[in-house]
Amino acid sequence: MKAAVIVFPGSNCDHDMYYVLKHVMGIDTQFLWHKDTAIGEIDAVFLPGGFSFGDYLRTGSIARFSPIMDEVIKFADGGGLVFGVCNGFQVLCEAGLLPGVLRKNRNLDFICRQVTVRVENTATRFSSACTQGQILQMPVAHGEGNYYAEPDTIRKLEENRQVVFRYATVEGEITDRANINGSVNNIAGICNDRGNVLGMMPHPERAAEFQLGSADGKFIFDSIVNKIAEFV
Amino acid sequence: MPLYNAQVFIQLKDGILDPQGKAVEHALASLKFTGMSDVRIGKMIELQVESPNETQAAGNVEQACEKLLANPIIETYEFKLSQLNEAGA
């Protein structure tokens, strides 16, 4: 398997993502600069967290028009696996690869702490190594993670089981208190209807080794690697 | 070619929670500004656009709003155009 991590000006989780892919998962991994115009022979593309273009205008709105994004969109349209975390999720929404938008957190705070999410659907290429209802602990670090989409879109997301992760209590209850940022229906991560593009606000790449306090994020990387092996 | 100044106003759609507006509303109330409510915070983007005429200038600004300046899922936009120089100047 070969992976690429896209680097935008202002990305700051690109090396964390690279480290997990290359050294924890043992995947052949390379960086791609946002001005690159070819993806090459790649099985999966990773959009990292950070503050691309300083979050100017709206988060992800300028990165979305970087030259490499035309290639990422083509790659996704061709069924390629695309995974965005935090700012990567915001870029995928702005690019129209995922529906909806990430608004400012409802309490206006930049939220930087451990959270727990519940796995809502294990029949995806990003969650097949998880168990239904499994609770994953991972950190979040964002000011704009408050997921919103129009009611019709939310209804379709729920009907198609595209909500893959939801903010939940440690016991697995979906409560308003567990909903750290005010997201509609506690949404922490969604995939597209085809199931090859996923975006999430929590950071699995910062929770993929026990030394970091949680290795729960590795379930997601294991899922991706297992599914790529099946497809190749 | 005529040069136009565009002032683009971007607002959150009605019904979209505006936590910044709420925070400012509470601050106004704590400063004893009475009778002020429904604070909504948007942004104003100013730009200049060269175009053969006002209709085309408006078309260009509208496209820029749709594609980049506003996110139509949660925002609305409107803009004002004013000509900065005379045609042919």
Task: Give a written overview of the molecule.
- The complex is a heterodimer of chains A (232) and B (89).
- Chain A contains 5 helices and 11 strands; from the N terminus they run E-H-E-E-H-E-H-E-E-E-E-H-E-E-E-H.
- In chain A, the strands form 2 sheets. A 9-stranded mixed sheet of chain A has the order 2-1-3-4-11-10-9-6-7, with helices on both faces. Chain A has a two-stranded antiparallel ribbon with strand order 5-8.
- Chain A has helices at residues 14-24, 67-77, 87-94, 151-159, 218-231; strands spanning 2-7, 28-33, 44-47, 81-85, 101-103, 111-119, 135-142, 146-148, 163-167, 187-191, 197-200.
- Chain B is 31% helix and 30% strand.
- In chain B, strands 2-1-3 form a 3-stranded antiparallel sheet, with helices on one face.
- Chain B is elongated, with a radius of gyration of 17 Å.
- Chain B starts with a strand and ends in a 6-residue tail after the last strand.
- Classes of the chains: A alpha/beta (232), B alpha+beta (89).
- At the A-B interface, loops of A face helix 1 of B.
Highlighted features:
heterodimer; A: 232 residues; alpha/beta; Rossmann fold; nine-stranded mixed β-sheet; 5 helices; 25% strand; B: Mth169, Chain: A
Task: Describe the main β-sheet of chain B briefly.
Answer: 3 strands, antiparallel
Low-confidence stretches of chain B: none
SSE series of chain A:
EHEEHEHEEEEHEEEH
Which class of the domain at 3-16 and 42-85 in chain B in CATH terms? Answer: Alpha Beta
Q: From the alpha-carbon coordinates, what is the Rg of chain A to the nearest angstrom?
A: 16 Å
Strand content of chain A: 25-35%
Structural class of chain B: alpha+beta
The tally of beta strands of chain A, per DSSP, is 11
Q: Which series of helices and strands of chain B comes N to C?
A: EHEHE
